[in-house]
Amino acid sequence: MEIDLNHAVDEVEKTVLCNGGCEKASAYIYCLSSSSSSTSPCSSSSGSPAPCSSTTYLELWHACAVASTFSPFKAFDLIPQIFCKVMNVQLLAYKENDEVYTQVTLLPQRELGGPNLEDKQSDKLGVEDDADGQPSKPTPHVFCKTLTASDTSTHGGFSVPRRAAEDCFPRLDYKQTRPSQELVAKDLHGVEWRFRRIYGGQPRRHLLTTRWSIFASQKNLIAGDAVLFLRGEDGELRLGIRRAVQPRNGLPDLVISEQNSYPNVLSPVTNAVSTKTMFHVFYSPRVSHAEFVIPFQKYVKSVINPVCTGTRFKMRFEMDDPPERRCNGVVTEIRDLDPYKWPNSKWRCLMHSIFIEVKKLQTGLQTAALNSPITGGVEFLDIEESVRSSKVLQGLENVGFVSPVNGCNSVNRPLNFEMQSMAHQSLASTGIGKSNHSEFRKADPTSYTGFAESNRFLKVLQGQEICSWRSLTHKADRNLGVWAKTNLGNTSFNMNQAPNTNCYPLASEGLRNMGNVSFDASLIKPGVIVDGLWKLNDHKPIHNINRPGFKRNLRNQQDDCCKENVTGCKLFRFSLTAESPTPNSQNSDLTTELERLFSMEGLLSDPDKGWRVLEFCEVVSKMHLYRQEVKKMSIGMGSDDTQSCLEEAAVKWKHQSLAQLGCQIALHLSYGYEDQCFAIES
Amino acid sequence: MEIDLNHAVDEVEKTVLCNGGCEKASAYIYCLSSSSSSTSPCSSSSGSPAPCSSTTYLELWHACAVASTFSPFKAFDLIPQIFCKVMNVQLLAYKENDEVYTQVTLLPQRELGGPNLEDKQSDKLGVEDDADGQPSKPTPHVFCKTLTASDTSTHGGFSVPRRAAEDCFPRLDYKQTRPSQELVAKDLHGVEWRFRRIYGGQPRRHLLTTRWSIFASQKNLIAGDAVLFLRGEDGELRLGIRRAVQPRNGLPDLVISEQNSYPNVLSPVTNAVSTKTMFHVFYSPRVSHAEFVIPFQKYVKSVINPVCTGTRFKMRFEMDDPPERRCNGVVTEIRDLDPYKWPNSKWRCLMHSIFIEVKKLQTGLQTAALNSPITGGVEFLDIEESVRSSKVLQGLENVGFVSPVNGCNSVNRPLNFEMQSMAHQSLASTGIGKSNHSEFRKADPTSYTGFAESNRFLKVLQGQEICSWRSLTHKADRNLGVWAKTNLGNTSFNMNQAPNTNCYPLASEGLRNMGNVSFDASLIKPGVIVDGLWKLNDHKPIHNINRPGFKRNLRNQQDDCCKENVTGCKLFRFSLTAESPTPNSQNSDLTTELERLFSMEGLLSDPDKGWRVLEFCEVVSKMHLYRQEVKKMSIGMGSDDTQSCLEEAAVKWKHQSLAQLGCQIALHLSYGYEDQCFAIES
DNA sequence: TTGTCTCCCGCAGGGAGACAA
DNA sequence: TTGTCTCCCTGCGGGAGACAA
To answer: Residues in domain TF-B3 (chains A, B) (predicted)?
Structure first.
């Protein structure tokens, strides 16, 4: 059975159509995945809409919908942008594995002319933002815990974090000798799960015992997957899961051979466009690729206010460890995405420099900058970006999830969220230089949710925090720094790197390098770089990387490596053989940062390799390679080898991607309150 | 993983093309099922051919490929007959449930003209039959056991019939105190299964114990499913399963809505025909419908020598109980299949009378005749026919399986078999009247395998007999009666009724009714007819019909029925209220026969209802209704009600069939040695 | 505070003889 | 000869405290 939240969505649409006062150019982003034609996902589409269209479900759905990585565009025969009207949006969940996906029904529209666009935009800009004034949103409580080995073991149940249990679960009478109760929670399919909840163990803790293992095995949960509990206003408990990056289980794997996949999948779209009939687009957040649907308003804004060289941006991100870091950047170059594949595409490939600041480290401030191309991006006025940390590989997923409520009633605006995968590709800032920031704020309330907020919600989803949606959304933009304020509304920067790049630029307003890569090799301590992950010439597979002992094991292994194989170690151009001091615990943070930063140096510093880097990232994600295994691919070779390695990986990725997804199309989706049109980049 | 026996098939094709001496108009029949377009079965086609193309595999595949019921044609926009060349045949097995299916790659050919056809046929008729002279076939030993409740229970293993174990399993040292050995068998996917085989229990018997339950649960076997063991010349043991009629498990269920299923599925065929490019046809024996592929030679023969009114035929069949019966029949009328749906179809609807003889019964001879229409049938010169007994409903499947080897090297002719489903529809005999029977024998060696032989093989597949393929195939046509001899070569008659018709006509050369239905009600003892299964107005579902106590339970239930509800009992036009004597055990055999014979009387006797009867049968099969429940549908109504019941059932069937299969096409497949062409009836 | 380990104990289920059809 | 039942015994795994990070 699948959840069909159409009903609620229809409500939204009605609101949007008839009562646009509250609706801005909301950031409704949809990414394509799977077959994007009218063929429905074959193994899972029962087509029977579930009767559970409550707000709580919407929230749970969104909470489960954390986008993963992305992929580059593919060129097809369709026109670059296709403007569409959103006819229907179904929030669904695969019955096989509970993964959420969206089916968007689109109706192609006549292309809108330039002047028309401007009119529409100016309409938007005058609208007052009254979202904060109407906090009709209930305050559900949610927590997300990444499952440990103990949680998924056959012995014992699920250990609930104390705050999470107290916040989301019904009150428990602690005066009893063995406090226990029955917990009832519904999953996305409306299936009711009953667990025995106890407060036991020594010391005492909250546990789900009886029937937990049934749930875990039925949902095929493994350590690293995450479980979400969400308590609505009415006290009703919802239950969702979000899987760690792993092979898709039960998702439609349309293996389509190259010779017939393109026409078969795209022809329905082509046909729909030519006949002005509806077609469907599927979006699986967990397997999303670069293709997406762009809000029409954003498209308009980007066309009117293109990003220009010199535009600066700022971002914050979370690391494995607490110290706050910030990152400033400047757009250094703007180029066509791919003039051959996408001759008329509005997407731009933006080269940028970012500046790194590492606080609270060892000797003080260490900085570096690198010039990294980030492709994609209709010239958005508001951009979210986040960074994936290595936690992804250890079962904790770093997400740039923006609250779906964000100051506006989520019942009326259930689609008001941005997918991470979109942020991947979008890097542009035209907000800077604009004098009236509030205009942009008013034009798109979604963008008010800065990265800090998104980051906080992320922590909630990771079980690090418990929050109510209300409190989260109302704290928006208070945590933003100066740069974030400056670019507020449209430039909250959210760069989502694929895990393997491990490029964790740190913000520093003081130190900048505006030009090309200025890579200071003197900052690298070779021995440090070797630490932990840089084992070379070691082809023994490292298992159990997800297990808690992972780092320790690696370190031991690395010690061996240093003793044995240091001679041949090379990190691109940098020989690691000269000196290899034992890393001390104090500089390990910096070590990790630098290691991440420089691992892809040879790639990121070369603008021409931009695409390949991205593809390479995707390969890694797709192939579920572990971090150090990925690095094995890219180190131990000269720069020339790196190039060929990337090309090989890219080819591999393309092949796999084709096989898995059938094809890719990128859609620019508009979901404005009066012009529900899409720009489809096919 | 799927088994791809292409390699062996390719060999065949090569032989066929380059060395046609041994090749006649072989009866390679393929039925369509699932989506018959170029879209491959979505959930299961891994596409990776398995490396196990041995003869043993071919035999196992065929042994597992017992066709079930059929369905009527559907009208589509394609031309009536499409002649195709067989480019490839892949014998595959769904990895989900081990069910076998075939993918036939067809290349449309220019339609062949009339004179051309005759030439080709005369070519065939002159070819000498040398199949018997070259017995290069190895002699594998095979047995098939329908699983009992004990076999599939969680306690204990699999009880192997003694003869089966001695014939197919390696020798066991009975002198040991606890004779045991490890048995290794490969399934259709090449997966190796290891069982502990013991000779234990008290009294001693052959058992598979350790790991049997793993196999059973992994294959999701239930009581009623059948397991096949096949030992090749090399001693290698193969293992296959054939499921009882039940909902398909894991088979591609392409739910295609009516508005787009037809064009989507058929357009590739249409396109392939117009562009003379290849397309694929899938055939799942277990879910086969009426659509099929006809050997070109048969097509030619049928067109040249059409069946004419008065043609007589004979058949033998097996009953639940030993007594041999025979059935003679005469074609009484020939008509178009459906001039509206199939304006130019070569298929003919043949009305016929059959004559029944019941031997060894009570007082001697009891006879009856009925005139039943059997639709379908390009005017084949050789026809196989069998009868489904009620055993099907009790987990024992009655099959009219013709040995694939049949006097010709199976390595070179692995496709030399006829599917039951084809036999369903084909009813015609033009062999009669021909003076030179040997011509037909020579022309098509496959047809030499008479029904008796097929029947014996059937018993093997049901575990009632153990045989070597060699011995089975070389006994062909010795057991045939006079009629079978007369029509030998091309008229081995094989009528496969769907279970619910339960029409078991018995052969009698002495008593015939050449005209329309002459139904002698005086032969019916109403009380007898009520016996056992004729419970009326009883809507309590009868469960566990497959269990051994079934008949006893039914009888008890029937006793109740007779006491309570006899007043309203009506068997079509025959009131059952007059008298209802308690059936004695002596006439129960006849009772059962008559009960079967007359259950569909109101339908079969009306030529206009011919199609509906067939559809009705299909409904029954499709809906997995039990025998008596089916009868509930058809009795207790007047003849008018019967009509509407049938129509309702037909509509239901059509709907279900559409949903399950997407569409249906019928193919006439030719696989002659020089003209590898198909006639496709779309 | 919470992840893992270990120990206890209940029960599912395999294995094989008993019994009967 | 073989299907079913029953009894025995093993091992999986749930449940909860012990212990430690």
So the answer is: 143-245
